[in-house]
Amino acid sequence: MKKVSAVLMGAGNRGAEVYAKYALDHPYEIQFVAVAEPNRERRELFRQQHGISEDMCFESWEQILEKPKLADAVLICTQDRMHFEPAIASLEKGYHVLLEKPMSYDGRECVIMGDYARKYNRIFLICHVLRYTQFFSTIKRLLDEGKIGNLISIQHNENIAHWHFAHSYVRGNWRNSEETSPMILAKCCHDMDILLWLAGADCDYISSFGSLTHFRSENAPKGAPQRCLDGCPAAFECPYYAPKQYLTDNTDWPVSVISVDKSYEARHKALKEGPYGRCVYHCDNNVADHQIVNIHFTNDVTAAFSVSAFTKDCNRTIKLMGTKGEIRGSDGKNEIEILDFLTGSTEVIKFVPSKYGHGGGDFGLMRDFVKLVREEDMKRGLTSAEISVQSHLMALAAEKSRLEKRVINMKQFEEEIRNTV
Ligand SMILES: NC(=O)c1ccc[n+]([C@@H]2O[C@H](COP(=O)([O-])OP(=O)(O)OC[C@H]3O[C@@H](n4cnc5c(N)ncnc54)[C@H](O)[C@@H]3O)[C@@H](O)[C@H]2O)c1
Fold this sequence. Notes:
single chain, 6-stranded parallel beta sheet, Rossmann fold, 14 helices
């Protein structure tokens, strides 16, 4: 069995702690042979964990691509605005590519990457991990089998959870669309992808509303300082008080993000000095904290999608309505119900919870990518960069609709972007 060799660009949370963990658990399938990461602590930790030689550790992705091809595949897990250049250069160099979502914040770059996917005969997958979960892949199978007749409409909710939103979209990496991308792209390109997949047809019209309503300075408790640890008078009443999230016994994600050293002292220092100790009402955030999207597909299927920061649970709930029945489910509960109109019966499918992130999707995606690279099978993946272009354009069109308060015609939207390529 051929063992895949790989290079990691960006040894942060997703690269080092999620995808590369697969290599540690399956050393007979994949081995990392080089890493590019500017953060010295992270780079060194990755080097030691994967037994990489010193001369194969680099500070930036460009240095890897200056060398002759070092491995079969690259995993690009840098931040949102650092995906396009390394992806294009890696394909040109002959690597198979696994690229984190979003492909890009810019529709033009997404379209170019889709064109590259067609031009270069390489495996080029975007990390749409939900397709690889038991939950969503079972729903897809049930629809394809005609279990609820013809699909007519979908109601889909992404419940981000207040603490997750505060971590990622108020204090953290995805708080400001000028630096990364709008929330509907950063968080919900997954949902656009799933809806596109389940609807089974192209999207032709999309509209959206939403705003940043709560995490604004005018909503700060009276006397709240810039940082929670600077004697906030609302410490006991505020659900977003930073020590409540980061100074407990839990040192896994999202706490692992605030400091490589997970000791209490290091985390305390991170809250004193770093972005995660800031009051949620005094950050430089601008992304929407709630948004709805209405979608029409060319086969007349409609979808109503809602994403919100203001939920207790962190999960996705979905209802699919067909001519002969309904499918309902919550990926957090690991359960799907199928309701049959003719017999009145309800069938329940339960899944064993996965120990891997995103309901097992992180694991499933890596397993599939490794298998495809090993077999050099360009066609058989569950998805591809070419397909992902459409879901990214849907998210970008939703944002345009939100800002311009009008329905977006997807064909025109794509044409306008293509005219700039
Ligand atoms: N698929 C998913 O479900 C999912 C979930 C979360 C995040 N993401 C995406 O994954 C990507 C990475 O997110 P993360 O949470 O791991 O972020 P992160 O900040 O933890 O990791 C990014 C890493 O890239 C490194 N980096 C910066 N400049 C670099 C350079 N020039 N060369 C090489 N490395 C460089 C940073 O130092 C950092 O360690 C983002 O685009 C994010 O949107 C995807």
